[in-house]
Each structure stands twice: as structure tokens, then as C-alpha cells.
């Protein structure tokens, strides 16, 4: 991490997204982890065990991509399926959601297999893949810290808009608009 990539508090995308969707939030995160990617022996599956709530959890959200890009397609897909199933068992009343974080390059070749593995693991388990999430940061270098890996404050805002917008949709969060269709982040939503 560089200092401009060490985002905390209200600037974190997850805090912004939870506020948008009017949700309470518990974060269990560790840099360098993914479904298959581990840091100090920890992967997303291990982070599930740190959760303090069980019965009243509405959503379990896995957000990754970059770290898993260095693992094989089969490894990512198999670990994602295993982890999503574990989430379903640990949090039986929750919807499991998977989202990507893009990277600072417009060439998605290194993320192609990870995106495919994430989407296919959702299809195989009934989890929800956040539409268009792989395009959130869309290679825009201005959304990244100087290390080119970690989103800066503006990047966290963009992540919050798309992921938070999707959580708003799932949570039926009221949107004050007269429009029949509105856009939050990269997705369009129709009002009923």
C-alpha cells in the first residue's frame, strides 16, 4: 500500500455503500486475499468465520478480483463455489453477492479468467453477481493510488456507487426521484 491507497472511515467504499442502502455493516477484510488467493494463510473462506452475526444477516458480500487474477481459473472457480456454499450454510437467511474490483489497466486479459470464474461460481450456487462490477474502475488511472493497484478516495466512491446502488435495489431502498429509470454507478434501475 501507499499512503494515498490507505483509505479509512467514511471514505471506504463499503461504508459508503452501506449508508446508501441503509444497511448495518460488518467488515471482515484482509488485503491480499480472494477466493483462491491467500495472505498469511487466509482467504475469503477464512474471513467468513470472523462474522459475529448469524441469523439476522441479509447479505454476505465478497468483493475481489485482482488478487485472484494470479491464481488459476479452476482454483478460483472451485474455491469460490466452496466459499459461497460455506456462506450459505453459515448465513442461511442471507443473499450471497459477488462483485469484482477492476484494475488500473484497460486490458482485462489478466482478469478475464477471474471474471469468468466469479460469474460461473454464482451461476453454480445461486449467488448474485453484481452486474457490470468488473467495469467499475474501468482502467481509469485517476481512480487509483500511486501504486496503481489500490483505489484512492475517488475510486472508493466509484465502487460505492455501483455496489451500493445494487444493494439499494436488493434492499428496496427508497429513491427520491420522479424518473421511471434511474442510474446509480454503472447500472440502470426501473422504479415500479
Describe the structure.
34% of the residues lie in helices and 11% in strands. It has 5 helices and 5 strands, in the order ααβαβαβαββ. The chain has helices spanning 13-20, 44-48, 73-90, 109-125, 153-170; strands at 59-64, 95-100, 128-129, 181-184, 187-190. α1 (13-20) packs parallel to α5 and α3 packs parallel to α4.
Number of helical regions: 5
Spatial extent as radius of gyration:
16 Å
Strand order of the largest sheet: 1-2-3
Structural class computed from helices and strand pairing:
alpha/beta
Topology pattern, helix = H, strand = E? HHEHEHEHEE
Which stretches are low in confidence, meaning pLDDT under 50 for 5 or more residues running? none
Largest sheet: 3 strands, parallel
Q: What is the global morphology?
A: globular
Number of strands: 5
Amount of beta strand: 5-15%
Q: Roughly what percent helix?
A: 25-40%
Quick recap:
With 192 residues, the protein is of the alpha/beta class. The protein contains five helices and five strands; from the N terminus they run H-H-E-H-E-H-E-H-E-E.
Amino acid at each position: 500500500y501507499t499512503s494515498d491507497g490507505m483509505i479509512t472511515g467514511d471514505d471506504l467504499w463499503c461504508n459508503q455503500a452501506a449508508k446508501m442502502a441503509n444497511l448495518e455493516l460488518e467488515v471482515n477484510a484482509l488485503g491480499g486475499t480472494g477466493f483462491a488467493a491467500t495472505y498469511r494463510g487466509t482467504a475469503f473462506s477464512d474471513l467468513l468465520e470472523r462474522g459475529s452475526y448469524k441469523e439476522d444477516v441479509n447479505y454476505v458480500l465478497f468483493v475481489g478480483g485482482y488478487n485472484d487474477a494470479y491464481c488459476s481459473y479452476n482454483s478460483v472457480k472451485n474455491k469460490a463455489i466452496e466459499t459461497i456454499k460455506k456462506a450459505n450454510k453459515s448465513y442461511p437467511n442471507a443473499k450471497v453477492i459477488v462483485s469484482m474490483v477492476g484494475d488500473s489497466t484497460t486490458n482485462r486479459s489478466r482478469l478475464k479468467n477471474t471474471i469468468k470464474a466469479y460469474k460461473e461460481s454464482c451461476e453454480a450456487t445461486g449467488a448474485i453477481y453484481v452486474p457490470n462490477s468488473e467495469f467499475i474502475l474501468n482502467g481509469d488511472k485517476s481512480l487509483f493510488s500511486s501504486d496503481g493497484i489500490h483505489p484512492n478516495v475517488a475510486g472508493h466512491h466509484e465502487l460505492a456507487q455501483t455496489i451500493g446502488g445494487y444493494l439499494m435495489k436488493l434492499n428496496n431502498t427508497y429513491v427520491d426521484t420522479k424518473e421511471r429509470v434511474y442510474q446509480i454507478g454503472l447500472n440502470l434501475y426501473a422504479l415500479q
